[in-house]
Design a protein that fits this description.
It is a single chain. The chain has a six-stranded antiparallel beta sheet, with no helix packed on it. It has a five-stranded antiparallel beta sheet with strand order 96-97-98-99-103, with no helix packed on it. The protein is mainly β and 1459 residues long. It contains ten helices and 110 strands.
């Protein structure tokens, strides 16, 4: 069987040839260590000219397009393109990530700049609004964002002399920004008559509010404040792309190829014309300049970096070269020397020395080059051109040997035969031509079997055969040199290939990922000696596979760096290096091949740390070489927590039923009942799909969860208290280090984590907005300030929170597969681990991101599925429990040892002060020493060890253990079967809490005269529960099948149980032993009922639409009720035991005469007169009101009427328990509603004396007891009930004014503007010609600080004569907004002034003088106003306005009297 594992050797990036000069500016700097930092493709490069050495930052996964250097010149910020681009701040010494800023920009990050003290970073996006963002980059926190401009922004800079001021420039604009609070406010630069309105490409800030900017026409514009004061004309002959400020002055670089130096007042010092120097050429264009002391760095459009020493300015030193813009496809390696040849659409062919890391020759051709090959003797270099011709050059001096054009379409591949006699040329028109080298490249053959363009070719070692691949993925063979196709399989068998660069064929089957296009892999090259092969693909990835690679979905190691498609890849002649080239990034990467390393070395070489795993990633194949998952884990990974409808969707659904609501509101509806219920006790614990969710609190109580309830259980008093803040299944629970607070995470569309106090049961913080579908793991940090959570979305997002502030600190995509546990390092709260399916990852926080490294297994085995993890006694040590029963011991990211701990998975692990405790599927609790070398003691969970005080019975010996916790001298154990046990150190075990196991619970019956109930579930058990204060399970019996219904006989001695296979049993209610059993049906028995009185008859309803009636005494079937068109859902007898009421799945209400089962038709008025022995139906006029407005979406699953016939309790598919007055006539009755169950409530029953309501939840497996509280003697408690959804007008809710105000729609105005676009500007905002005063330098303060003018206006007015508009000054405003606002008039300054608002103006009215002053920063109606009462903030007012984006309430704070 072929080996599908990844190769053990690997590649290390050694050198990158090129520099990104095209479409980027200002991306080249000296660091503090005098190294040069720049970027190319997706790699940040730090180059040391002294040592001629490069270091690489590999944290990006797409093209980097912007770079900024921190003022201390060690840290670098880089921004990338992409759908969800991010910014990395990294250290240029260590090339490690310091911070990641993400989740704000889209498309890409065009510019970056640090402020003077380096605390803040500004970024500009490539989205349609060119969004400007200001970050506290160390925390990864967004401080402010604002739309930048409607057109591209090219440069942005902080004003280094005024904090909180920035300048940005771009297409036909310059903007001056001020940062106030979290608001960025721009003012547009006024060009006036001093200079033409034009595109500004770069800028630099100087003292006294002076800004210098470089324009597209080569002028430099000088700004004072926001006004253009002078221009320096002809500074460059064409656009100025770069401007760099340093201590000595400013350096500018332009499209004219010149670098000019200026002093601090922008007086010219010198000019350096690079086109005129030794290395210069026509068309050289400068994109980036950096001036430091007497050295100047220059980056050009054509990917060169020059270093100029000022006193030898005509001799610039060429540090780096690369291909210019245009795709790069051609790559060949020299057969005997360490040389690589590349050719590109820039029409140049270049030869690189792999030892010296330098360009050693370059030659420009007439046409774009698409492929290259070197002859076997290394003398000739053949180049295939885009126009269908090919040229042969001498390698020695790059002189032409021959130029031949036999084809009209591009040449894609060239190959010399191993004997050097032939050259094969494959073209886009589906043919391969064979040329004789010795005959001066005369054509000697042609291969014409392909139906598509030729992509790859290889010669056989004896030069007698050629294999080709074409665009359709076909692999063909030809005899050489004639070109005759070979189809005989026998002939092909023994062929040895001289090289392997084809992408299709048996040997390379494994390189193709699933679902990939046949053209995704662009290039392959096999290293026969090392038995490895390297591939290049369209996703920018270089991969290393074993060779041959026969089976699909083989594992590989992958390497990132190229941003777009990698077009070609080749081994050097001696297999020391791999050379890869990027298409769009036109860069050449040289990788060092590191053969299989010995294990002892590998421990010292940490994997490459990056945001995307750049070291090696497993393929996405079905990993059949990984041991099968344990059945329990397999089952758990299959559970889906996605709901059709979430509780969060309710308001929306109700909105859709508006018409129904209106009609309901107009009718008189029954009041909600006065009585209420309160949750009293819950039987159940969520163990079947959760782990480590059970703890002792500070006071020795036990905290855990089941359904949507957080439970605090007092084991001395056998009482429970409940946290009811969740509204769906809780999936995880963690306890604060002080053991007083708990964090719980739930299922939901936008799922939340609640942190609550176990003493007061009050929520302290709710965290939302980052997890979809649910939260499956949470953990507190050791100081209790932080919380980590993991979502169950497709990427299993990991979020780190400051939970008290409710602030997200960092987030990252965790893994495609499920993560079971997250743990924060107790010694370093910035580090954490996650463990899950084939996953163990070590994370560290970097700003707004987390950087992960996979656990390094080394030779100790494969990555196993990890079920639990804890940190050990030092910050480096971590321990994880696997699905195979081992404990893995990790130091840093390296696996150093594994210890066999359990048979089957280790589900739970707990670190003690001196040692560990583990629990597994084998039902054993094991205590270990602190190095996992000795197992000190084991406890097996057995029925025999149960202590007398237990609250139930163990279902089986050695149940699978899911949670372990220690405290108060005991070990607390939670099992998969829903039991909570307390193990005494000396051995006895007490069962404290118990519920049903996994599977839905539907069957519920209460005893006719004792506080007892019976339940039956899909977990194949029938259980009897004591409802008196002892709250325990009295008896349990295993059934052959799951059951869905049960019922006590009227005397309470027998219990009937309906099973899922169509059979039913009657058992003794005390011993649960069989009395009788029947099977007449094949489908599920859905309901079963004894007739009242003596219990003579038993009605048995099934899902195959029938009700069978049995005579209990004679044990015979005496009647069958036919006529239902769907499965039976509910049944009730009348008091006489003669009539049966039946509900069906088709919402039919039917009546049958007993015992024969004859169908009766009874009018609804008569039905109400009949006395029913019980009422559990959900249909009929008496309970019309129990169906909610959104009845189509959700079903009412169960109901039960109190014995005094006053209150009807219902359970529904939303997990709500509701109380209605009975009869609930008329639609949409009012109710009281209670949430505790998570999904559907499957059954509800009152006890015989109505003192308790018992409810069961389907999938949440819980049994809940609610005390019934009669109106009057009820103490008001928190979280008692939510009243009904509809509060109609007849309740006297609104008076007419309030109604009118409630109906005001503030969006209409915003919508109408879209229908009729309005252009133009309020006069006081228009740009005006300078007045006489201004020309003479008399400055008058502007009156308004309103928003800057729209961009559209200027372009229309350029060159037109404008009449100067005199400025209007607001003097007096009549009016006050009272019609729809409240509390919006206040005294200020001890009653001297009054503040209020009208329209979009805040008004300060002086009582004594009667004068008004105005705050005019709003641009739409102000709707609210408040005054800060704190003595420290006198006269601070906040006003909120209406805007077109209705959600964005703009709050502006202003100082009164000083606006």
């Amino acid at each position: 069987m072929a080996d599908r594992s990844a190769p053990s050797c690997h590649l290390r990036l050694e050198w990158v040839y090129g520099y990104r000069g095209h479409q980027c500016r200002n991306n080249l700097y000296y660091t503090a260590a005098k190294e040069i930092v720049y970027f190319v493709a997706g790699v940040g490069v730090v180059y040391s000219p002294r040592e001629h050495r490069q270091k690489f930052y590999l944290g990006h996964q797409d093209d980097i397009i912007s770079l900024a250097l921190h003022p201390e010149r060690v840290l670098v910020a880089t921004g990338q393109v992409g759908k969800e681009p991010y910014i990395c701040v990294w250290d240029s010494y260590t090339v490690q990530t310091v911070s990641v800023l993400k989740d704000v920009h889209t498309h890409g990050i065009a510019c970056l700049a640090f402020d003077l003290d380096g605390q803040r970073l500004v970024s500009v996006g490539l989205d349609s609004k060119n969004t400007v963002c200001v970050w506290d980059w160390r925390k990864g926190k967004l401080l402010s964002m604002a739309p930048g401009h409607t057109d591209r922004i090219f440069d942005i800079s902080w004003d280094l002399y005024q904090p909180n001021k920035l300048v940005s420039c771009g297409v036909k604009h310059i903007k001056f920004w001020s940062l106030c609070g979290n608001s960025l406010t721009p003012k547009r630069g006024v060009f006036g008559k001093t200079g033409d309105l034009q595109t500004i490409l770069c800028l630099a800030c100087a003292r006294d509010e002076v800004t210098y900017s470089g324009a597209l026409n080569g002028d430099i514009y000088v700004w004072k404040g926001i006004n253009l004061v002078r221009t320096i004309q002809g500074a460059h002959a064409a656009g100025i792309f770069s401007m760099n400020a340093c201590e000595e002055g400013f350096a500018t670089g332009g499209r004219d190829g010149c670098v000019r130096l200026w002093d601090l007042n922008f007086k010219p010092i010198t000019v350096i014309d690079l086109r005129e120097t030794d290395q210069g050429y026509k068309g050289l264009s400068v994109r980036s300049v950096c001036w430091r002391g007497d050295h100047i760095l220059v980056g050009t459009q054509d990917s060169e970096i020059f270093e100029i020493v000022v006193h030898e300015r005509n001799k610039p030193f060429l540090i780096m070269q690369g291909h210019c813009e245009g795709e790069l496809w051609a790559l060949a390696v020299h057969p005997t020397k360490p040389l690589a040849m590349t050719g590109s659409d820039d029409r140049s062919v270049r030869i690189w020395s792999l030892i010296d890391h330098a360009l050693i020759a370059r030659c420009n051709m007439e046409e774009p080059i698409r492929c290259a090959a070197v002859s076997t003797d290394g003398i000739h270099l053949a180049l295939g051109m885009k126009d269908g011709s090919f040229t042969v050059l001498r390698v020695r001096d790059m002189t032409e040997v021959v130029h031949i054009k036999d084809r009209k379409e591009a040449i894609h591949e060239l190959k010399y035969s191993p004997d050097g006699n032939f050259l094969a040329v494959g073209s886009n028109d589906s043919s391969v031509d064979i040329y004789g080298v010795v005959q001066r490249y005369k054509k000697v053959g042609e291969c014409i079997g392909s139906s598509s363009f030729i992509t790859h070719m290889d010669w056989s070692s004896d030069s007698k055969y050629l294999q080709t691949n074409d665009g359709n993925g076909k692999r063909l063979f030809y005899r050489m040199p004639s070109g005759k196709e070979v189809t005989n399989k026998e002939e092909l068998k023994g062929i040895q290939w001289a090289s392997w660069t084809c992408v299709s064929g048996l040997e390379v089957n494994g390189i193709w990922p699933k679902y990939s296009d046949i053209n995704d892999v662009n290039s392959v090259d096999a290293n026969f000696i090392g038995q490895v092969m390297v591939t290049a693909d369209d996703y920018g990835i270089v991969k290393l596979f074993r060779y041959p690679c026969l089976r699909k979905g083989a594992k590989f190691k992958k390497y990132l760096g190229h941003s777009a498609h990698v077009t070609n890849v080749r081994w050097s002649h001696d297999h020391q290096w791999v050379v890869s080239i990027g298409g769009a990034d036109h860069s050449v990467f040289q990788w060092k091949f590191v053969p299989d390393r010995k294990l002892k070395d590998s421990l010292h070489i940490a994997p490459q740390e990056s945001l995307v795993d750049s070291n090696s990633d497993e393929s996405d194949s079905d990993q059949s070489d990984v041991p099968e998952l344990d059945s329990e884990i397999e089952q758990e990974t299959q559970i889906t927590y996605r709901r059709q409808v979430y509780k969060e969707d309710l308001p929306q659904l109700k909105e859709q039923c508006k018409e129904k609501r209106k009609s309901a509101a107009s009718k008189r509806r029954e009041r909600a009942p006065g009585n209420s219920i309160r949750l009293h006790f819950v039987h159940g614990y969520r163990g079947y799909d959760c782990r480590s969710n059970l703890f002792y609190t500070q006071t020795g109580e036990i905290v855990y969860h089941v359904a949507a309830v957080g439970v605090v259980y007092n084991r001395q008093q056998n009482t429970q208290r409940f946290y009811l803040g969740h509204d769906d299944d809780i999936l995880c629970l963690a306890i604060h280090p002080l053991k007083d607070y708990v964090a719980t995470g739930q299922v939901g569309r936008d799922s939340s984590v609640h942190i609550w106090d176990t003493e007061t049961i009050k929520p302290l913080s709710v965290l939302k907005g980052y997890h979809q579908y649910g939260v499956c793991a949470v953990d507190f940090s050791a100081d209790g300030k932080r919380l980590a959570s993991v979502g169950i979305d497709d990427n299993h997002t990991i979020v780190l929170w400051d939970w008290k502030k409710g602030e997200k600190l960092s987030a990252v995509r965790g893994s495609k597969d499920k993560i079971f546990v997250v743990k924060i390092n107790p010694y370093m709260p910035d580090k954490l681990i996650t463990a899950g399916i084939k996953h163990m990852k070590f994370w560290r926080r970097a700003g707004g991101g987390l950087i992960g490294r996979k656990g390094c297994i080394g030779a100790l085995g494969r990555t196993d599925t990890m079920m639990c993890a804890v940190y050990g006694w030092t910050e480096e040590m971590a321990f994880s429990g696997t699905s195979t029963g081992d404990v893995c011991i990790w130091r840093d990211v390296f696996l150093i040892k594994t210890v066999k701990a359990h048979d089957g998975p280790v589900f739970s692990m707990h670190a003690l002060e001196k040692g560990f405790v583990t629990g597994g599927k084998d039902g054993v609790v094991a205590l270990w020493d602190d190095t996992f070398e000795r197992c000190l003691k084991t406890y097996a969970i057995k029925r025999a060890a149960l202590a007398p005080g237990s609250k139930g019975l163990l279902l089986e010996d050695n149940p699978s253990i899911r949670a372990i916790s220690l405290g108060h001298g005991h070990i607390l154990v939670g099992t998969k079967n829903g039991e909570i046990l307390e193990v005494d150190k000396s051995g006895p075990i007490t069962l404290l809490v118990q519920g049903h196991m996994e599977g839905e619970v539907w069957g519920l019956a209460t005893h006719p005269h004792l506080p007892i109930c019976a339940t039956v579930s899909d977990d194949k058990t029938l259980r009897i529960w004591d409802l008196s204060p002892s709250h325990c399970m009295l008896a349990v019996r295993k059934l052959k099948k799951g059951g869905r219904c049960c019922c006590f006989s009227p005397d309470g001695k027998a219990l009937a149980v309906g099973l899922n296979d169509g059979s039913f049993l009657i058992v003794n209610a005390d011993t649960l032993e069989d009395l009788v059993s029947f099977q007449h049906r094949k489908d599920v028995i859905s309901e079963i009922r004894f007739s009242p009185g003596a219990g003579k008859y038993l009605a048995v309803a099934s899902c195959d639409n029938f009700v069978d009636i049995y005579n209990v005494m004679s044990s015979k079937r005496v009647g069958i009720c036919k006529g239902a068109s769907s499965y039976i859902t509910h049944m009730d007898w009348d008091i006489r035991g003669k009539l049966l009421q039946v509900n069906t799945g088709a919402k039919e209400q039917l009546f049958f005469e007993a015992p024969r089962g004859k169908k009766q038709t009874i009018p609804s008025l008569e039905v109400e007169k009949i006395g029913w022995a019980s009422w559990t139906s959900v249909l009929g006029s008496c309970c019309e009101g129990i169906w909610p407005i959104i009845g189509e979406v959700t079903d009412v699953t169960a109901s039960c009427l109190t014995s005094d016939s006053k209150v009807l309790a219902t359970g529904d598919d939303f997990g709500f328990v509701k109380l209605f007055r009975y009869p609930a006539k008329g639609k949409f009755g009012k109710f009281k509603r209670y949430v505790a169950h998570s999904t559907h409530v499957t059954n509800v029953r009152w006890t015989y004396d109505d003192s308790l309501l018992v409810t069961v939840g389907g999938a949440d497996t819980s049994l809940m007891l609610w005390t019934y509280e009669v109106e009057g003697h009820r103490d008001s408690r928190q979280c008692d009930s939510e009243e009904s959804d509809l509060d109609s007008e007849e309740d006297g809710g609104y008076d007419s004014d309030v109604t009118r105000e409630n109906e005001i729609n503030y969006t209409i105005k915003a919508l109408s503007t879209n229908i009729r676009p309005m252009f133009g500007i309020k006069p006081h905002l228009q740009q005006k010609e300078p007045t006489l005063d201004e020309r003479q330098g008399v400055v008058r303060p502007p009156v308004s600080r309103a928003l800057p003018q729209p961009e559209k206006l200027q372009t229309n007015n350029v060159g037109k004569k404008k009449r100067p508009i005199e400025d209007l000054i607001l003097e007096l405003v009549f009016g006050y907004r009272g019609k729809d606002c409240r509390n919006n008039v206040h005294y200020l300054n001890d009653g001297a002034d009054v503040i209020y608002h009208t329209a979009s103006v805040g008004i300060l009215y002086n009582v004594a003088t009667g004068s008004q002053s105005f705050y005019q920063e709003h641009n739409d109606d102000i709707l609210c106003l408040t005054v800060n009462q704190h003595p420290k903030f006198t006269n601070i007012v906040a006003t909120g306005q209406e805007t077109q984006q209705i959600c964005q309430l703009q709050l502006l704070l202003f100082m009164c009297g000083m606006q």
